[in-house]
Amino acid sequence: MRVLDLAGKRFNGFTVLYEVPSKNGRSRWMCRCNCGNEWVTDSCNIKQARMCPKCARSSCGKRMFTIPNCGKRLLDVINSKDISLQALSDSTGVSRSSVHAFIYCGRDLSSMRLARVCGYCGVTMDYIMGLKEAE
């Protein structure tokens, strides 16, 4: 006897279509995303899912800045002082890909890494994060 029937229910951007037989006794469900992709997932994962695996892969790296323009400020400083990402990486120990992802994709840098990058570039973290104007 099924305690919970999820068929036809909508969660975030997808609809649960029907239950899929499982060998281990767990409830598994066929789902269809708004994009048209279909996939099977466990019932315990349905409520936490935000999108189908295909949409999750395509949205990877498209997160927006939590504080607008912080990547642009760092890029402006790097360009104005003619600093290469490789030299920055070698001197600070912060990988080029991490700095690149911070500048262009809005990914986070830990405060320790951002402090190293700012120290090398000769600017304050407050300026990069938009809390103070350049002095």
Describe this structure in words.
The protein is α+β, with helices and mostly antiparallel strands and 135 residues long. It has two domains: 50 residues, no CATH class; 59 residues, lambda repressor-like DNA-binding domains (434 Repressor (Amino-terminal Domain)), CATH 1.10.260.40. Helix content is 40%, strand content 15%. Strands 1-2-3-4 form a four-stranded antiparallel sheet. α4 packs across α6. The chain is elongated and about 60 Å long. The relative contact order is 0.11.
Roughly how many Å is the radius of gyration?
22 Å
The low-pLDDT segments are: 61-68
User: How many domains comprise the coordinates?
Assistant: 2
Main sheet record: 4 strands, antiparallel
- Biggest sheet: strand arrangement: 1-2-3-4
